[in-house]
Amino acid sequence: MPSYTPPLRDMQFVMHEVLKVSDELKALPAHAEVDVDTINAVIEEAGKFAAEVIFPLNISGDTEGCVLDKATHEVKTPTGFKDAYAKYVEGGWAALSCDPAYGGQGLPFVLNQCLYEMMNSANQAWTMYPGLSHGAYEALHAHGTDAQKALYLPKLTSGEWTGTMCLTEPHCGTDLGLLRTKAEPLADGSYKITGNKIFISAGEHDMAANIVHLVLARLPDAPKGSKGISLFVVPKFNINADGSLGERNPIFCTGLEHKMGIHGNATAQIAIDGAIGTLVGQPNKGLAAMFVMMNAARLGVGNQSLGLTEVAYQNALAYAKDRIQMRSLSGTKAKDKDADPIIVHPDVRKMLLTAKAYAEGGRALQIFCTLLLDKAHGHADEKVRKDSEELVALLTPIVKAFITDNGHIATNACMQVFGGHGFIKEWGMEQYVRDNRINMIYEGTNTIQSLDLLGRKILGNNGASLKKFGKLVGKLVEEEGVNEKMAEFINPVAYLADQMTKFTTEIGFKGLQNPDEVGAAAVDYLRVAGHLVFGYLFARMAQVALREIAAGNTDPFYQAKLQTARFYFAKLFPETATLMRTARAGSKVLMDTDLALA
Predict the structure, then answer these.
(1) Most exposed: 30, 94, 346, 521, by fewest CB within 10 Å?
(2) Is the pLDDT of residue 293 over 80?
(3) What is the DSSP string of 20-73?
């Protein structure tokens, strides 16, 4: 059976020593009083909830799965899920970073990020139920009417109700311009909505009294394509004037998908048969409102893979220290045993360190991004708010795609450490591989994230956002460029940052002549950009570790951090050279292949 220990020390290191989160929060009026002790107390309790309440349900939930009663359209979640959710609500975790105006605790997003990393490590399938509610909350908070906010936000904040996002249709995935669900206006200002949706995570369950569906649909006079999509809030149960639940709205689960992983989450097929909903935002402008939820979900999906990378690493490390097989190539290490623990073998260490580096780099990036979100929402300086928002937009596709790709690499590597036992269910490792695999697909496949990064976020504004991030790298290089002890960390980042300008310009010019060049280069490009961001953050972490060691701090944590950073720059970061070469290979070798693909 697997185990899980919340990585509190590393979270505290990133927040308090590298990013100085509490100092940053002092410039945000809403969070100026949030200090180190408050942050530590919250994440310690969050870790206990994750490890003690939902982690024990992970394997059993995967085995049991969800069950649909086709007569009533009700879904029963795995044993223990509902009780765990009641404890989640009772503990106030749903309200952690929500607006106090609606009953929230008003704590920074950065704390919510840590909570969700640990819950994803503990049980990704369970965590998706409250996770989607946060996205629905954000969309309504940003674009809902006063009446919608008053009706829905207090219940979403408390966790009494949960939320979903209903986009995908059987014929229509990412290309939402093909969407067919219809919305007919009624005399009272509401709408009657009809259509079918698929792949709706947490689309039906028994954990909360009501489910608030955010549904994309077309008005009768809507223009074709994505410019004719509106967003509607459609509750499972209609709500009476006094706030009590009324009659059942005809938005039903007609089937559950049989999936590779996340079996404990109900991935629902939804039939909408004249359900009553209300318009969110402006007519035909639904995507702008839904993108609030989609961007929140993309950051959340990156967090799912971060969580799985961490828990897979912890268990692979423990196994590698205990499992004995063969002798070390450099001589016997465990003379009292018949063989050496497999952790003595170089390639086993490579697999473990790969997972460790991708977990620590991903954690630093997630905390960095959520701190930017806090600043974008609440900093006193308008310029800081705008700069932070622009950087979050740039980094969002990297968080979603790079961290989930790394999660795939890491969970597979950790399963490999277990050898044949990794392929067996009772050890839990194969579940981490299966659960992680969806993260590369949903909320926009990683190819779509790559096109978004290169085509929209970088070439779309002539590299302005990339230059903004480049200034952060430049500032660090200026601080540490002459420090010999930092050379092994700074020089690779400085070199790649310099190359990035030429590389981007080259792809951009090719794309002007043939747009397929952007499509051919985008996935490799995003991975190069991901390493630039990870490299910057690893250099900052190494900077702090070196300063602590120089000051006489003997905590082995800092030496361990340097060793992980050295491994990252020596064994993982160099793939950027290959990626730039393959990106420059162009589209011809992909598109001039009709005979090969006949």
Answers:
(1) 346
(2) no
(3) -HHHHHTTSGGGTT--HHHHHHHHHHHHHHIIIIIGGGHHHHHHH--EEETTTT
**Residue 194 pLDDT > 80, yes or no?**
yes
pTM of the model: 0.98
Query: CB–CB of 519/456 below 8 Å?
Result: no
443: left (phi over 0), alpha (psi -120 to 50) or beta: left
Q: Residue 252's beta-bridge partner residues?
A: 271
CA separation for the pair 396, 453 (Å, rounded): 8
Tokens matching residue 474: 């430049």
Distance in Å from the first CA to the final CA of the chain:
48
CA–CA separation, 4 vs 184, rounded Å? 50
Q: What whole-number percentage of the chain has pLDDT above 90?
A: 95
What is the helix (H) or strand (E) element at residue 193, kind and residue range? strand 191-201
Of 12, 35, 5, nearest to 118 by C-alpha is 5
CB 479, CB 503: distance < 8 Å: no
Residue whose pair of structure tokens reads 């005399």 in the numeric block? 187
474 to each of 467, 480, 489, how far by Cα in Å?
Answer: 10, 10, 14
Backbone torsions φ then ψ of 46, nearest 5 degrees: -60, -40
Q: Give the CA angle between residues 28, 34, 36 to the nearest 5°.
A: 125
Residues 6 or more apart whose Cβ sits within 8 Å of residue 424: 430
From the list 1, 128, 119, 77, the residue with the least C-alpha distance to 439 is 128
